[in-house]
Design goal:
Helix content: 10-25%
Number of strands: 14
Number of domains: 1
Largest sheet: 14 strands, antiparallel, barrel
Oligomer: single chain
Shape: globular
Number of helices: 2
Distance between the termini: 22 Å
Strand order of the largest sheet: 1-2-3-4-5-6-7-8-9-10-11-12-13-14
Length: 199
């Protein structure tokens, strides 16, 4: 590992609890939500499943997503970028294609085998997941992704985008994050887009 990167990660790990503690409490706790810190910023996202909406703030920007089941479309904005995705599939499979984060986005999710493969932000996106164990491991944005959800407490901890992630989920499962993983992949600088081996 690059010594400067190692120092950066050590500093991020030391500061993460402080940032998490300083993030505001969610305002609308009657809705499923996630809140906490990632990418050096506070996060609050509400998932109004009945209305087909996701809204709040992530990566220092407003997020507003509309899900249209009739046309199988996801439209809106997040991470200072438009979101235009179409989805399709069959039992046990979900395919998302389109654009997000100012780049093409594609993700093929196999729920039965616990795999997701595609690309985002001009880099490969892949991960393996186990909803029962609450684990998700792979790579995206040219860096490792390692997340673990404690289902009893709703705490999601780990790292992605080379930065510590510390979130609290309420009324949500790991599958909700996987379906909308584009929200969590903020657009990286070109220097971050190095290769990470994977399947």
């Amino acid at each position: 590992m690059n010594p400067r990167l190692g120092l950066f990660l050590a500093l991020a790990l030391a500061l993460a609890p402080r940032l998490y503690a300083s993030c505001p409490e969610p305002e609308f706790k009657n809705l499923p939500y996630l809140s906490g810190s990632m990418n050096h910023s506070c996060v609050t996202l509400y998932f109004d499943k009945e209305a087909g909406r996701i809204w709040g703030h992530i990566n220092r920007s407003e997020a507003r997503i509309e899900i249209d089941p009739e046309n199988r479309a996801i439209r809106g904005s997040a991470n200072r970028s438009g979101v235009a995705l179409d989805y399709s599939g069959q039992p046990g499979l979900l395919y998302l294609t389109g654009s997000a984060n100012r780049a093409p986005y594609q993700l093929h999710i196999d729920w039965a085998n616990g795999t997701a493969r595609g690309f985002s932000n001009n880099a490969r996106l892949w991960f393996d997941f186990d909803p029962k164990k609450g684990t998700l491991e792979g790579a995206g944005n040219g860096s490792r992704i390692q997340l673990r959800l404690d289902r009893s407490s709703g705490e999601l901890r780990g790292a992605m985008n080379r930065i510590v992630t510390q979130l609290k989920l309420s009324g949500l499962e790991l599958s909700d994050l996987i379906e909308h993983f584009y929200l969590f992949l903020d657009y990286p600088s070109a220097s971050v887009l190095d290769s990470v081996e994977g399947p």
